[in-house]
Design a protein that fits this description.
With about 325 residues, the chain is of the alpha/beta class. The chain has two domains: about 130 residues, Rossmann fold (3-Layer(aba) Sandwich), CATH 3.40.50; about 180 residues, Rossmann fold. The chain contains 14 helices and twelve strands. The chain has a seven-stranded parallel beta sheet, sandwiched between helices. A five-stranded parallel beta sheet has the order 2-1-3-4-5. Helix 10 links the parallel strand 9 and strand 10. Helix 1 runs parallel beside helix 13 and helix 5 crosses helix 7. The radius of gyration is 22 Å and the shape is globular. The protein starts with a strand and ends with a helix. The protein binds (2R)-2,3-dihydroxypropanoic acid. The site of (2R)-2,3-dihydroxypropanoic acid has 5 residues, from loops.
């Protein structure tokens, strides 16, 4: 029986896909350190891990028999894919199953910051609310405004679709322009990045973390935004220069921000924590019971497929497939 290490316990439906098929080592406690994870990989053929596990070349090398690393996430910037590929280790992710849920949460962030929901909650809980007041916690309207989407992939498109209900003009920019029929169907207009930043009332980020998207939003880009505009980030923390954003918010260069992701999670730039015009969430955009279960089941099925010699549809490094088959899985 192949040995599979599950670095954090998964929902029951996912565990059921693995039990009886593999010899399992499951972490049911606090997150393992890198050394603790490495110590468990000596005999493992499969590893199921989450975004907080850094799976670098050193970790991979601790598992000489590893054939698959399955991330329970669509992003895989925690895994050294090049190192895995050079070892012939398949890397899989969980695309598709979290797009709607993440788009829902993007709107939760946008509405929360525009309409000052968190500040209102705090006021009520702290017993400081004195009753209805014409000028209390005035926010910004969302309907009829301009939404700028950077990254019109699976999640960006779903965010765009939801903007229809708010009668918004939607601008987008991406490395590749979408086909005209997609633009028509979504009701979105292509804009150069600078134009998008200058004209949008809400800028929302949906790009993967790549060398070219690191600090995509820095001091220069933030300075192009309107002083009444808001920045929403549910993609990856390092896409935004957090220090530059904290500075822009403190100086009221933009109206506010809502962030689900941070440059050095779980650390948050100390200046952001003290600012009222920023909503901070702990990387939970895909965190509905249904979606997190679907992600875990998908990761388990990815491992089953590879270890049973079937090609997983969610291979990040498809080029290793021939090698995996050639090793006689
Ligand atoms: C992902 O899947 O990459 C998200 O950041 C967590 O759901």
């Amino acid at each position: 029986m192949a040995r599979v290490v599950v670095a954090r316990e998964l929902p029951r439906a996912a565990m059921e896909r693995l039990e009886g098929r593999f010899e399992l080592e499951v972490n049911r406690g606090a997150a393992w350190s890198k050394a603790e994870l490495m110590a468990r990989l000596a005999e493992a053929e499969g590893l199921i891990c989450q975004l907080t596990q850094q799976v670098d070349a050193e970790v991979l090398n601790a598992g000489p028999k590893l054939r698959v690393v399955a991330n329970v996430a669509v992003g895989f910037d925690n895994i050294d894919v090049a190192a895995a590929t050079s070892r012939g280790i398949a890397v899989t992710n969980t695309p598709g199953v979290l797009d709607e849920t993440t788009a829902d949460f993007t709107w939760a962030l946008l509405l929360a910051v525009a309409r000052r929901v968190v500040e209102g909650d705090r006021l009520v809980r702290e017993g400081k609310w004195k009753g209805w007041d014409l000028m209390l916690l005035l926010g910004a309207d969302v309907h009829g405004k301009t939404l700028g989407i950077l990254g019109l992939g699976r999640i960006g498109r779903r965010v765009a679709r939801r903007a229809r209900g708010f009668a918004m003009r939607v601008l987008y920019n991406d490395a590749v322009r979408a086909p005209a029929e997609v633009e028509r169907e979504l009701g979105v207009e292509w804009a150069e990045r600078e134009q998008l930043l200058r004209e949008s009332d809400f800028v929302t980020l949906h790009v993967p973390l790549l060398p070219e998207t690191r600090h995509l939003m820095g001091a220069r880009e933030l300075a192009l935004m309107k002083p009444t505009a808001y920045l929403i980030n549910a993609s990856r923390g390092p896409v935004v220069d957090e220090a530059a954003l904290a500075e822009a918010l403190a100086r009221k260069q933009i109206a506010g921000a809502a962030l689900d992701v941070f440059e050095r999670e779980p650390e948050v730039h100390p200046k952001l924590v003290g600012l009222p015009n920023v909503v901070l969430a702990p990387h939970i955009a895909s965190a509905s019971v249904e979606t997190r279960t679907r992600m875990a089941v998908m990761a388990a099925e990815n491992v089953v497929a590879v270890l049973e010699g079937r090609r997983s549809p969610n291979l990040v490094n498809a080029e290793v497939w021939e090698k995996t088959v050639a090793r006689g899985s």
